[in-house]
Amino acid sequence: MNDDLRNIILGVVAAGISAALGWLARTSLWRRGLRRKQAFFGLPENSESLLVVNRDPATSEPAVHRFDVFALLELAALIKDCGANLQLVTQDNVQQGFGERTEFCVGGPGSNRRMLAHMSAMLPGIRVNIDPEPGPDRGAFQIGTERYRLDPGITEYVLLARLTAGQRPDARPVFLFCGQRAITNQAATRYLARNHERLARKHGKNSFVLLLKVVNSQAYGPDVVELVEDVTRAAQAPLPPAATDTAPSSHRAS
User: Fold this and answer.
1) What beta strand segments (E) does the chain contain?
2) Considering the entire predicted model, what is its pTM?
3) pLDDT tens across 74-98, in order?
4) Which of 17, 24, 57, 198 could form a disulfide with 111 if both were Cys (CB 3.0 to 4.6 A apart)?
């Protein structure tokens, strides 16, 4: 074997070893990222999850708004990426507790009874105006002493929450997507899909409640979303008496 042939063989072997090491490193990073994602969502391989869909309040017939359908598709993709299974149920067809399976609940308390129950049990510091009568405070959020009004198509708000039941270390989380309009529900699911790694680094497996603002949805759809504030502390504390006294005639999430 001459020197040229030996050098070619050694080069091919070295390239093969480098490619194999690179593949192993990429696979290791991918698996580590997948485990972090599964831990954040509470979705280990082949686990079960619940996808709770609301109804479209604008129709008398049982129906789902198209933006809520888009939100469900975004969530289904997240669940599939984790290697988990999902069960899709309507908001008036769920009769079970929480913590056993990861749950994704879409829609405000006016269109989703399950959301109403979760907010009553776990978010006493939030009041949502679900009065169907027109008015400046229709759909408004009261969070602690702050009020966030809806300006349709211009400025709209949505709550994105990850909540766990009690102190059980094995409790699966509940994810809430509570928006003032259907398009904001989709905006929140898209925000979660894009930012779950950052949220996992910041919050770990702890509960959090984020207030998001959807900007100019009539032009940009659900894509332009701003984080207004982390409202976890205010949301989990009782609503202050001053806020109760000055709140508009609305229905508390209870």
Assistant:
1) 48-53, 85-90, 102-106, 126-128, 141-143, 146-148, 155-163, 174-179, 208-215, 225-230
2) 0.82
3) 999 999 999 999 998 887 776 677 7
4) 57
pLDDT tens digits, one per residue of 206-221: 899 999 999 999 999 9
Spatial CB neighbours of 158, under 8 Å, sequence gap ≥ 6: 177, 178, 179, 180, 184, 185, 187, 188, 211, 212, 214
Q: Residue 182 has which token pair?
A: 């259907």
List 53's β-bridge partners, or say none: 90
Cβ(176)–Cβ(146) below 8 Å: no
Strand segments (E) across 126-207 = 126-128, 141-143, 146-148, 155-163, 174-179
Closest CA to 106 of 210, 209, 190, 179: 179
The residues near 33 (Cβ < 8 Å, ≥ 6 apart) are: 197
